[in-house]
Write a structure and sequence with these properties.
Helix content is about 5%, strand content about 40%. Strands 1-26-25-24 form a 4-stranded antiparallel beta sheet, with no helix packed on it. The protein has a 4-stranded antiparallel beta sheet with strand order 4-5-6-7, with no helix packed on it. Strands 8-9-10-11 form a 4-stranded antiparallel beta sheet, with no helix packed on it. It contains 3 helices and 26 strands. The protein starts with a helix and ends with a strand. A hairpin with a 5-residue loop joins strand 16 and strand 17. With about 325 residues, it is mostly beta strands.
Length: about 325
């Protein structure tokens, strides 16, 4: 990633100004930043999760190790987190249970909490196959009573039941090598030092992830079929440094670009539709956007750098 940033800094001088095309099938308008009664809540590249039943959003500020809950209007209603040092990611179950993944060095622990943030159980992973023995989770997602854990450095994902029992796993690096290198040793070298940047799971259980050094985003089906999309560049619809990724109920996929400071929108067939945000100091601008979350009402939450906090956009499909 460091090498990618160094190469891509040349793009900073040629980032285009925002444009609105009549043919776009998705548009977004800025609404507000997540706040409390003191004003916008500051955070640096927070991890985000949405409670789909209540349209509440959770923000994990990893620097300060605090978790804040905001209502459907973007106002803070509760906060906790002191009991979970090194919290790395967060996910919300169907009944409002909170799953917190803590990762430190080469170890990780998974905690189940109630709505007050009180731990009710520690989930222990069980029956992990030998090929995943080195697995160390640092990303987390939840879908349909299944926890999806990702090791971003090894590009591995495992699925476990809510009691921690292993269901199945994916070696995404091996899938990438097989699809893109096909036994070419020189071509395989580009996959040795890659890592996952953005990670999520859509409504159909497809795994979504981005790899910044490949300038690409990916969707992996339950049977392991991998589809990649995106091209490198500084122009509209191109990837600079990919970050967070998320999909809405209609199948549209949103990808944050940390370098170009935009969120790109793709349809269910992985075709580019629109982008929004752009670098700047206006409320509707973005500063190095990363993690994304979206609720059932089309509110897209975008975590940013520079203590900018989380911006909320209303997405409309035409």
């Amino acid at each position: 990633l460091t090498q990618t940033l160094g190469i891509s800094m040349l793009m900073l001088l040629v980032v285009p100004l925002p444009s609105n095309l009549a043919s776009a099938e998705a548009s977004a308008s800025f609404r507000y930043r997540l706040a409390n009664f003191s004003g916008p809540v500051l955070s640096q590249w927070a991890r985000l999760a949405v409670d789909p039943e209540r349209n509440e959003v959770y923000s994990l500020n990893r620097r300060k190790n605090d978790i804040r809950i905001f209502d459907q209007h973007g106002m803070e209603i509760y906060a906790f987190g002191e009991s979970f040092p090194s919290a790395a990611d967060i996910a919300i179950g169907d009944d409002g249970d909170i799953f917190i993944l803590a990762a430190r060095y080469q170890t990780s622990t998974l905690h189940l909490c109630n709505y007050r943030g009180e731990q009710t159980a520690e989930i222990t992973l069980k029956n992990i196959p030998a090929e995943f023995s080195d697995f160390r989770a640092n990303r987390l997602a939840y879908r349909q009573e299944t926890l999806y854990l990702a090791d971003s450095d090894r590009l591995m994902v495992i699925l476990v039941d809510l009691d921690g029992s292993f269901q199945r796993g994916y070696d995404l690096k091996a899938i990438l090598k097989k699809q893109r290198a096909a036994g070419d040793e020189e071509a395989e070298k580009q996959f040795e030092d890659i890592s996952i940047n953005g990670f999520d799971v859509d409504r159909q259980g497809n795994i979504l992830f981005t790899v910044a050094s490949l300038f690409s985003a990916f969707r992996v089906s339950a049977d392991g079929e991998l589809l990649g999309f995106g091209r490198p560049g500084s122009g509209r619809g191109k990837f600079g440094v990919t970050g967070g990724i998320v999909a809405d109920d209609a199948g549209y996929i949103y990808v944050a670009d940390r370098l170009r400071c935009v969120v790109l929108v793709f349809d269910g067939d992985l075709r580019f539709q629109e982008e929004f945000g752009y670098r700047g100091g206006l409320p509707s601008n973005l500063i190095v956007p990363d993690d994304l979350a979206i609720d059932g009402e089309g509110n897209l939450y975008v975590a940013q750098a520079a203590n900018r906090g989380v911006s909320v956009f209303k997405v409309v499909h035409q």
